[in-house]
Amino acid sequence: MSGRATLVFDERLTGYDFGQSHPMAPVRVVLTMLLARELGVLDHLDVVGAEPCTVDQLATVHERGYIERVQKLSAHPTHADPSIGLGTADNPVFAGMHEASALIAGASLAAARRVWTGETKRAANIAGGLHHAMPGTASGFCIYNDIAVGIQWMLDQGAERVAYVDVDAHHGDGVQAIFYDDPRVLTISLHEGPQTLFPGTGFASECGGPGAEGTSVNIALPPGTSDAGWLRAFHAVVPAALHAFEPQVLVTQHGCDSHMDDPLTNLMLSIDGQRTAYLALERLAEDLTDGRWVVTGGGGYAVTDVVPRIWTHLLAIVAGHPIDPSTETPATWRAEVERLSGQRAPQRMTDGRSASWRDWGEGYDPDSWLDRCINATRTESFPLMGIDLSV
């Protein structure tokens, strides 16, 4: 086994491009890779290329009829098929979209394969994390569900317990739906509540299907939740749920649209709060899975100033060489950000916030909207998982 973590990256991954006016701009990946390179993060990672998933591999989680229709639209991008979620404002049709989506899925599959086979303990695909894609429809900027493809591959290789934690501001509905009836997969999603944000799912009462009760955990947060509240919720639920499930491998999705500057969501986290969450997930992987950790990107629409900084922190944590938040951003990176955005780039790898929180054990406040949300999740999920609510 290599002592170094793996980053699966190929320049072609930036070909997942819905067009110039779409919020999910591939420049966010380009600028992340530039920043990570300039700060020396890539020196601590084995960077390997990606190959697209085959139709058979995609069909482990997607309907073959859906894949065929994506292929046809990919070859004829002037057409649309809203019945499968393509040709909409969220998911415009573009030439080569099947190939671009299959490549992202292939990169996450490669990351999962390297971790599960023991080639490395940690592997990342920052271009991945397309967690909204359903078996037969595109949704929320997501065509193929690369995360589910990777998880399903590990299950097919004999994995008995795979845990998935999603920290995107949007509910990880596609991954949850695909494994909702499978007791071998625990899905945990921390997201802005469905009353105020797409996709309108992720209630605390969504706990898993027949035979898999307790393997779906949802923490729906109030709009305006900031670092302290988000971290309070995370620590009140996630460690206990993971310890109870005893996963063999941890898969995480790191959509960073929970940031206070993100234009599409209403959460208020800082770079510092998000980085603290990533370090907590790293520790949980070390404690519970002997370090086996598969990492993807996800949402994030402050594409020039926020996404590259926090995903560079993520890659540094995956590499085992975290970056001091006070580190200055390189002049070459700042110049590129300013060229692309016309705005001054951040000077440091921090927002200057203190990522602290009040532990759940210090008491529940029923007058707090946040605490009521946390309590709802614990009350719905913990008894199904055999967890004492006093934990």
Q: Could you explain how this protein is built, in words?
A:
Pathway: Ketone degradation; acetoin degradation. Belongs to the histone deacetylase family. This is Acetoin utilization protein AcuC. The protein is of the alpha/beta class. The chain has one domain: Arginase, Chain A, CATH 3.40.800. The chain has eleven helices and eight strands. Strands 2-1-3-8-7-4-5-6 form an eight-stranded parallel sheet, with helices on both faces. α1 links the parallel β1 and β2. The longest helix has 20 residues. The radius of gyration is 19 Å and the shape is globular. The chain starts with a strand and ends in a 6-residue tail after the last helix. The mean pLDDT is 97.
Give the helices and strands, then pairings:
Elements: E1 5-8, H1 27-38, E2 45-48, H2 55-58, H3 64-75, H4 97-116, E3 122-125, H5 146-156, E4 162-166, H6 173-178, E5 185-192, E6 216-221, H7 227-245, E7 249-253, H8 271-288, E8 293-296, H9 307-319, H10 331-341, H11 369-385
Parallel strand pairs: 1-2, 1-3, 3-8, 4-5, 4-7, 5-6, 7-8
Helix pairs in contact: 1-9, 1-10, 4-5, 7-8, 7-11, 8-9
Strand numbers in spatial order across the main sheet? 2-1-3-8-7-4-5-6
Portion in strands: 5-15%
Approximate helicity band: 25-40%
Write down the CATH class.
Alpha Beta
Number of domain modules:
1
Which secondary-structure class do the elements indicate? alpha/beta
Low-pLDDT windows of residues = none
Overall pLDDT: 97
Identify the CATH architecture.
3-Layer(aba) Sandwich
Gap from first CA to last CA = 36 Å
